[in-house]
Amino acid sequence: MRIEITSKQITITDTMRTKVEERFQKLEKLQVPLIKPHCIITKEPKGVKIEATIGVPNGKVFAHAEHDDLYIAIGQLFQKIERQLNKHLHKSEASRAKNNGKDMCRNGEISGQAIEETEVEIESDAEIKLNKEFAA
Question: Are residues 42 and 69 in contact, defined by beta-carbon separation less than 8 angstroms?
Fold first, then answer.
């Protein structure tokens, strides 16, 4: 995989490049095809800002992180990307998408008819108090 790394006001060292490439290799374990990954590293007055854009099938993933230390910012960035990729990967399996009411009605699991409930006998307050006293 070819990873494009761009920087503004900072030179990219070999250690920076290998750290970013290692993190992308860890993302490949999720078995989501990463299309044209691109990282931008910028020197800010507060510290370092890193942004990443990755194309995935049926969408794009974007994340950014800021920190004084570049390597901590890289770690935070890839944690965010990993969460987004997990969400994208398991979207079809989500219970909110799979078990919504419309699909259950279409499959015949739920009918549109009201269910008749059996009557429940309600005890008086005095009987409830007596029952609680003897139960204790």
Answer: no
